[in-house]
């Protein structure tokens, strides 16, 4: 296998390859760009016009998606997968991956869309670098199709195992056909965002015009312990996307659950208290009247919404960041 196919090994070792460009026997070019960043270019005759950004390891302890990208890249480097798409592989936070931690100093996925400019330190520099890598990859050619999947696993168990978060931009409708493709890839639910955000997928969606999703694929575990995370459907769908075969051509949204954000619970102070059991699962329903959280100055979050569910409850986030999301069912009427 070509040495650049071992991007994960190189990244975990903090090693810069001596040969930055390699060609597979079928003419696919691999180019190492930076730590954890590798561009794949198909031969011109096979290029189908799709620019596909695949990222994982934005949170360093979310290893199942990192292992998935490693398998895809090794398949290309072994000449087993024959790309028709241009692809940018990104391992988001190499230092956190080496430590097996979500982040080193601060959550990288809260530093995009320029937020890194108001901060400093390791993750702020990396967010800036990742924005440049993504912007250069998509370039100025608007005739091509831009797609970004930012792959994650969640801190806790979930009543719905695999789901997507779909970013938001003023005046832009969420795409039904993109959701159908995700359905065929095993994604069971989608959370339609309704305001701007500072995550990586929100950046590529709103600033770079890509179709972009955060995919949550199961529970975060250490390297080599991901046998409970079944990525078979997603992996087949990614093989098809990479090779330019249709994904979910005959797919429908049948069985896919749609939600929208009702409220984000923001932690404002060290007095913040979240009143849910430590082992609560994502998508657990909360009844109207439930006292969800309390914070300084008598701030109280009481559930008012019918059919409300909670995702990503985390009272340990830094002040100013979201400590949970309350979501409600969505009828999909706004899809285009
Ligand atoms: O399990 C959790 O509490 C967090 C899982 C996670 O990392 N989720 C992403 C979602 C990003 C998005 O909102 O698009 C995150 O919190 O960064
Ligand atoms: Zn994550």
Automatic annotation (TrEMBL):
One of its GO terms (biological process) is L-arginine catabolic process to L-glutamate. Binds 1 zinc ion per subunit. Residues 256-329 form the AstE/AspA barrel-sandwich hybrid domain. Residues 49-241 form the Succinylglutamate desuccinylase/Aspartoacylase catalytic domain. Its EC number is 3.5.1.96. Its cofactor is Zn(2+). Zn(2+) binds at residues 59, 62, 152. Transforms N(2)-succinylglutamate into succinate and glutamate. This is Succinylglutamate desuccinylase. It comes from Ectopseudomonas guguanensis.
């Amino acid at each position: 296998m070509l040495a650049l196919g071992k991007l994960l090994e190189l990244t975990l070792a903090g090693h810069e390859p001596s040969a930055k460009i390699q060609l597979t026997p079928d003419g696919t070019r691999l180019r190492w760009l930076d730590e954890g960043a590798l561009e794949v270019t198909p031969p011109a005759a096979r290029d189908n016009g799709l620019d596909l950004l695949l990222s994982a390891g934005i949170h360093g302890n979310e290893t199942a998606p990192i292992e998935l990208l490693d398998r895809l890249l090794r398949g290309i480097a072994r000449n087993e997968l024959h790309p028709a798409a241009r692809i940018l592989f990104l391992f988001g936070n190499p230092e956190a991956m080496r430590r097996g931690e979500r982040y080193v100093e601060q959550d990288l996925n809260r530093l995009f869309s320029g937020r890194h400019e108001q901060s400093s330190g390791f993750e702020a520099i990396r967010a800036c670098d990742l924005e440049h890598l993504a912007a250069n990859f998509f370039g100025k050619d608007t005739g091509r199709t831009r797609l970004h999947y930012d792959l994650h696993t969640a801190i806790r168990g979930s009543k719905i195992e695999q789901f997507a978060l779909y970013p938001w931009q003023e005046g832009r409708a969420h795409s039904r056909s993109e959701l159908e493709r995700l359905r065929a890839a095993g994604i069971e639910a989608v959370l339609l965002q309704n305001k701007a955000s500072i995550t990586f997928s929100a950046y590529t969606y709103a600033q770079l015009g890509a179709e972009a999703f955060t995919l949550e694929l199961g529970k975060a575990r250490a390297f080599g312990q991901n046998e409970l995370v079944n990525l078979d459907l997603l992996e087949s769908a990614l093989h098809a996307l990479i090779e330019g075969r249709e994904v979910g051509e005959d797919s429908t949204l049948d069985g896919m659950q749609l939600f929208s954000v009702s409220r984000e619970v923001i932690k404002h102070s060290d007095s913040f208290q979240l009143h849910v059991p430590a082992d609560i699962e994502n998508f657990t329903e909360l009844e109207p009247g439930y006292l969800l959280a309390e914070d300084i100055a008598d701030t109280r979050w009481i559930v008012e919404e019918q059919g409300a569910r909670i995702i990503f409850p985390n009272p340990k986030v830094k002040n100013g960041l979201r400590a949970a999301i309350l979501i409600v069912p969505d009828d999909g009427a706004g899809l285009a």
